[in-house]
Amino acid sequence: MKAGSTETILRARGIGKSFPGVQALAGVDFDLRAGEVHALVGENGAGKSTLARIIAGVEKQDAGQMELNGQPYSAASRAHAETRGVRMVMQELHLIGNLTVAENIFIEKLPSRFGIVDYGKLNGAAIEIMEQVGLADIDPATPVRSLGIGQQQMVEIAAGLSRQCRILALDEPTASLTENETELLFHQIKRLKGEGVGIIYISHSIEEVLRIADRVSVLRDGRGISTADAGELSSSDIIRMMVGRDLEHEQLRHAGRPGEVALRVSGLNLGKKVRNVSFEVRRGEVLGVAGLMGSGRTETMRALFGADTADGGQVYLRGADVPVRIRSPRDAVRSGIAFLTEDRKGQGLLLPLAVRKNISLMRLRDVSRFGWMDVPRECSVACRYVDVLSVRCSSTEQTVGELSGGNQQKVVIAKWLYRDCDVLIFDEPTKGIDVGAKFEIYNQLGKLADKGKAIIFVSSDLKELMAVCDRIMVMSAGTVAETFDRDRWSREKIMAAALSELRADSV
Fold it and tell me: Disulfide-capable partner of 34 in 7, 18, 62, 467 (CB 3.0 to 4.6 Å)?
């Protein structure tokens, strides 16, 4: 995309921001032109979201000045920024679960007659904006809490797109979206560019950034490294500036010889979402699970883990002929099964608690004596995993809610590594994670497999599945469509399998 204008609508100079024990930004300069997409990239904790939140009035800078349309600008709050035409769709969802989709989209300006909400007008307006972002098949009167994470993300984006603005900041907007939903978002971004809106775009997807951005600014450790036209950069250039080294030739795991069957699932069913699913994973193996959104990947793992009650099916562990009874997550954990949920904030972490408390949560008996916490031991355990996973935090006393999304994900992984389960289910573990952190997680998966752990790796990213897995099981419409060995798969074969049951259902 070509830049739409040379008119600079925002200038930020010398922006600095500190949090307890962390220098988030140090003397960062940034500017945005009308009708352009200016991407911010960098590792987790580099300061991308913090800079965008300062511009949008969510945070207040400690140092530096900003200008908006040539005038001094300092937003006292998010609401104040919005009155100046600056809006942000944040990575963390800010929806109200008990309200409908339409109410969430127009929460700031509900149409009314005689003091009563005009739901006919509200739902009609919502349908129009929902169609633009691929939510045409959802009733605008549906409570948001009943939607999946990806659909909720689209509602958040729809709310942002529905309001007039001069600057729109999008923080990891596609992290939970399908390819089709992403295309619809890109179409809306192109429309906004044509209207002269300046877009601040934060993403860990380098391919996505190179496709949509006009300019790219790289941050590292809270400092601006470089700003350049996107057309002058390659993915290798961006990665090198982000992490300070070349990751292209770093070794991923070389598959070893898998051992005995660690987990066997037979005839698992959960309504129409999971239909007669059977598979097995061996010790020392990484089994990838691919499929489109709605294919039943996450639902299968939740039923296996006891988070949702299956209608039928058996789970066998360690080659046993007698199935185990898993009626709850507690049963699964006691049987040696771990589940790293894709919803790390809602289901994976206790955000108000310290890093050390989140890590030790799964084995409290090992860090306590006579019913009292052994804090030095707990700190020692937490420090070990913080070091192993390179978690960026001021100390293990820092609350998890203050960490970046990628570092929160590392804490979730640390928690389960400490539990030391035999079977580990990773559901979208690299979602919202920078490229450097992804390689760290890939290496951890390999190390776990080398230790004889059985890994189930659910991901929407075929590239990473093909890079780190020994086999890939493809799901379609709630069933296992096909399973590929490493020497048999290709992107085309996997996608054909992912669509196979959908085509069959349409016949």
Answer: 7
Q: Residue 259 carries which side chain, given as an amino acid letter?
A: G
Torsion of CA 498, 501, 504, 506, to 10 degrees: -80
Q: How far apart are CA 442 and CA 251, in angstroms?
A: 10
Cβ atoms of 124 and 111 closer than 8 Å: no
Sheet of 63-68, strand order: 22-33, 8-19, 63-68, 71-73
Number of domains in the chain: 2
Element (H, E) at 274: strand 274-282
Q: What integer is the mean pLDDT of 19-31?
A: 88
Contact assessment for residue 435 and residue 441, using Cβ atoms and an 8 Å cutoff = no
Residue 448 sits in the same domain as residue 357 = yes
Asked whether 52 and 200 are in contact (CB, 8 A), the reply is yes
pLDDT (tens digit per residue) in 136-153: 888 999 999 888 777 888
479 neighbors 276 (Cβ within 8 angstroms): yes
Residues 455 and 350 in one domain: yes
Q: Which domain, by its residues, includes 59? A: 1-85+205-246
375 with 488, same domain?
Answer: yes
Single out the residue in 214, 246, 278 at which a domain terminates: 246
- Rounded-to-10 torsion of CA 404, 405, 407, 412: 140
Determine the average pLDDT of the residues in 215-244. 89
pLDDT at residue 107 is higher than 70: yes
- The pLDDT, as a whole number, for residue 59 is 93
* 13 contacts: CB under 8 Å, gap ≥ 6: 29, 64, 65, 66
Tell me, what CATH number does 214's domain have? 3.40.50.300
Contact 415, 358 (CB under 8 A): yes
Structure-block tokens of residue 142: 């549906």
Count the Cβ atoms, other than its own, within 10 Å of residue 224.
Answer: 21
Angle value at C-alpha 450, between 444 and 454, nearest 5 degrees: 85
Rounded distance, CA 153 to CA 177, Å? 8
* 8 A C-beta contact, residue 284 and residue 256: yes
In order, the DSSP letters of 63-96 are: EEEEEETTEEE--SSHHHHHHTTEEEE-SS----
**Do the beta carbons of residue 186 and residue 212 sit within 8 Å?**
yes
Q: Is 399 helix (H, G, I), strand (E, B) or coil?
A: strand
- Measured distance CA(131)–CA(30) in Å, rounded: 34
Best CA proximity match to 198, nearest among 227, 169, 156, 174: 169
Higher per-residue pLDDT: 155 or 314: 314
